[in-house]
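During the reporting period the student researcher (J.K.) took over the structure-prediction task from the postdoctoral fellow and processed the backlog of single-chain submissions. One of the processed entries is reproduced below for the supervisory committee.
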Amino acid sequence: MKEEKSKSTTIWKEIKRRKVVRMVLAYVLVGWALIQIADATLEPLHLPQWAGTLVVWLVALGFPIAVILAWVLDVTPKGITVTKPVEEPVEALPTSYDASIAVLPFVNISGDPDNEYFSDGLSEELLNLLSRMKSLRVCSRTSSFALKGKNVDMPTVASRLGVQHVLEGSVRRAGNQVRITAQLIDAVEDRHLWSETYDRELQDIFAVQDEIATRIIEALKLTLTADEQQAIQSTTDNAEALDFYLRGRELYHRTEPGHLDKSREMFEQAIRIDSNYALAYAGLTYVFVDTYWYLDKEAGWIERAQEASRKAVELAPHLAEAHGARGLSYRVAEQFDEAEAEFEKAIAINPRLFEPLHFYAQMVRSLGQHERSAKLFRRAAEVRPEDYQALALASNMYDAIGDMQRAREMARETIERAKRAIELNPNDARALILGAGAWQTLGAKDKAMEWAGRAHELSPGSSGIAYNSACLYARAGETDQALDFLEKAVELGGRNKRYYETDSDFDSIRDHPRFKVLLKRI
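J.K. obtained the following structure tokens:
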């Protein structure tokens, strides 16, 4: 009964929103007036008796038509438009400014630059571990690591990253011995909550991670579920395997030629040492997918990605990261139903994990489901409040379906987030090019082209920058420049054909001969 009542209430609200009741009252009054006028003028005008009956029938027959038109159409200052359904609200995630943290890169004080991967990797491991807690919002690696090597006071860190707490520290490694110092800081009030130094052998690194996580949980007064307690456990207990995994992660984040091959070698070495290392299999999945998308279209990479992700899920079905990797492997194989199921599992396990939401939204976007994609991108943007990419793409999706109000709202917020990202990292070319698209949505063409130009200066060899520049020029109606950039994007490795086929930004050039030739090349 409650469900029926709720449904009835929703229908009644929608009827009122679409002004159907107002139209019905107006129609009844006008219809009644017409019938009265007909009745009064039949005899003076010498009209037959059936004329009055005809008026009554016409008024009656017009009533359902008028109701349907009132439901479907809306009169606005811009004219008559089709009434859009109310967008289902994006489910609000439980957020608390206090329950938020950034993990800054731990400082390598070993005196050996070759140990930089270890201090960065330990920081990232802690970040990933903390991100598995649904009650804690963790700042992304990209934003946290943008502060590496910078002397910034804690209140400024809190403001720029949008967090209450900061975990920072240092690592000294000498052979098999490590000294790790960690301290948790209330960055807003600029006061230390706790600090600890751990002198251990490398094999005890997992215990140190657990101790640091436990201290953070206690300090922030968090309560973990049984699933979260399981999720924060490491998927290996072999320090040597962890060492190779950290090397693989560090190499994966690089951009120089050959970084994917080197990253793959590290992950494979970690698996040779510990064949049950689920996260190493997940890491391999990302490498295989990126290799297929950007370097080599051999189908073997898809098969290898699917096998690696299958192993990750088999070993750690409780980890959202494993299901996210599995979803990505299905997506690249264009098994979209299976990909959707895995992304949904990942989100159910950890609704705060950005990657599954973002990859899911990207997949739906490539299928041309713009409204659904916009909702997923918005959810991803809520999970990671410092991220500008998801909001930029949400704006693009709303633009594609003609909802310019929401497109402009998303564009304005994209620009604000992009500005903060550029402040942290002035070389963030992607923030500039996506910000350029947002400026264009707001009608600021000169500003859009200025940001796009800066992006090209920073990353002239980026396929992503070239692709988004093509979007920019296609939307501006500058066909030749758009096609020039598209051809450049393909030459630089941007070969996801489905994007070229479904991206609404290219609607104006889709029938151009050069565009058709380009599609055949991919």
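The committee noted the following: The radius of gyration is 29 Å.
J.K. will present the remaining backlog at the next meeting.
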